[in-house]
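In response to a reviewer's request, we include the raw inputs and outputs for one of the modeled complexes. The two entities were modeled together in a single run.
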Amino acid sequence: MSARPATEGQAARAVIIAVDAQGGDNAPEAIVEGALRAASEHIHVLFVGRAARLRELVGGAPYAEIVDTPDVIGSGDEPAHAVRDKPQSSLVVAARLVAESRADAFYSAGNTGACLAAGLLTVRRLKGVLRPAICVVLPSQPRPTVLLDAGANAEVQPAHLRQFAVLGRAFCREVLGVAEPIVGLLSIGEEPGKGTPQVIEAHKLLAADLGPAFYGNVEGRDLLNSTVDVVVTDGFSGNIALKASEGAAKAVLGLLKQAIAQSARAKVGALLLKPDLVRVRAALDPEEYGAMHLLGMNRPMLIGHGSSGARGAENAVRYAARAVSGHLVEAIAARLGDVASGPVAASDPAPRAPA
Amino acid sequence: MSARPATEGQAARAVIIAVDAQGGDNAPEAIVEGALRAASEHIHVLFVGRAARLRELVGGAPYAEIVDTPDVIGSGDEPAHAVRDKPQSSLVVAARLVAESRADAFYSAGNTGACLAAGLLTVRRLKGVLRPAICVVLPSQPRPTVLLDAGANAEVQPAHLRQFAVLGRAFCREVLGVAEPIVGLLSIGEEPGKGTPQVIEAHKLLAADLGPAFYGNVEGRDLLNSTVDVVVTDGFSGNIALKASEGAAKAVLGLLKQAIAQSARAKVGALLLKPDLVRVRAALDPEEYGAMHLLGMNRPMLIGHGSSGARGAENAVRYAARAVSGHLVEAIAARLGDVASGPVAASDPAPRAPA
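The model returned the following structure tokens for the whole complex.
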């Protein structure tokens, strides 16, 4: 088995994404379909999974290669045990290929906890990172807001929240192309004294570190109105805020659908509105950004929703490639040093747009 | 000044609600208008505020009386100081009237923190209540879900979460008329081992107390899908979940509005859909339930959103009256004893519908 795709001449410049082809409810079909759409001269895909089926799905597609693994980690498996007990699972092998530099980034729509565990065991934390965080791009309008931590750490200390700001800002700069990302701290009131003791202390740290790039506290209602570029919070509140937002959006669209079904007049109205309703749904679709990013690791690691379809897989692979070519990990490493040695805002070098 | 309304003959059976007529962005006009709509032979309203203006607004309306107070607590005032420094403010006087049994329940759309502080100082906690909690009725479909704590306690212990279940179930029974309310614990995964150490411990307590009436963990997405009747959580996560849900619903409706504005076809469609859109908006309107309930006090206390309009005030007064006639406080007191002495589910007396 050679992990490098066949097109050796371009391999030096192409980005290689290790894709857990067995991860997620729609694996391997939708995952392969989507990832192949993203594959190109510049983005090579390494599909990790059961080769017999993958060969049928990949066919002779260019810029793609298959790594055969017998095992699969299920969505219900206990993460730490599964990673230990199934070293030949597609998820663990994909992580190992990245750890061994045979691929540049990892993507799986499988068991989130297992992705975290495999990441910590093989890809490992970037030096200086206290806690990796799950970073999710929220479809706020007119511009996206990234939220972290969305669930990796149920409890955090103020120093962790401080680092999450570094991770989130680097992500905004290198992957989303935001020149000077503004950070908000999720709390239950705008005043600096609102929240838990951890949040109140983090407010002070962030104000000192970021100066004008720190907006102050934001509230749950600010997640989708583009008030800030980065929202930092603990993984418990972040996960709940994310899922509450998704649930509320779904509830509103569900109510609308129900209302429409109740009269002929409404049905005609809905028909006329259909392209617009489709656009609203698309704007809110988590597949738009494909996956969550586990930030603070030695390589980009992306974790898709279990329900990811082809569109999600395609976008995840594209964003993974962007994280690699935008040198996200290197940018985080450089910023971590800045924070350790004092305020970073004043001495920020000019931001760089993503490749 | 006599706190009892003029209609002495009925006073013995009528419920008296003390209304902070100066609280909220739309006070006193909208508050008076709404509360007067709820006033009846059975519900008497005691308006507390600046009498000169209130007399103009109340006119000679029946079942209403005015208590003159010179001071007002602003929405931006520091709660504890404001309550101490303004004993003659409408908010504090309204709370005191309730504490002195000259009214049966309290309603204010003013400064939430000041309502809490005034409540703790005058109305006081019910004996045995560790922490009062803010309980909000979420407009989930097909039936409402109550969430507590929505912001009174940024940090809680497992024993507090356990009591919140008692408060929330009593509210569901006595005010919403739910026979056997099912409780969910907000966490970041369905498994009992997911969440913070406090949540994991609370899971055990709730399972032991409630038996089959405990659903287990719920997630942020379950707040609006009627999975359970009562969701218990700490005030930090609860406040964030509530505001994130509100923000997401607003964002979806905003996107829809934006989309509609972009074409003549869409505008015609929207016109046809208008009655349905209005219904969707109404179903999600926080004014439907009027106010949040501060549970665990010696008397029903309701705190409205600062933006409350006449509809919110009207419904708040109606729900306050229902809490009184449903003997909510007495029901909570009785249940608290049950929990202290062991599991309550098996020996639950037959539930009672609200008056």
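As requested, we also summarize the result in words. Chain B has twelve helices and eleven strands. Residues 8-130+287-334 of chain B form a domain with the Isopropylmalate Dehydrogenase fold (CATH 3.40.718.10).
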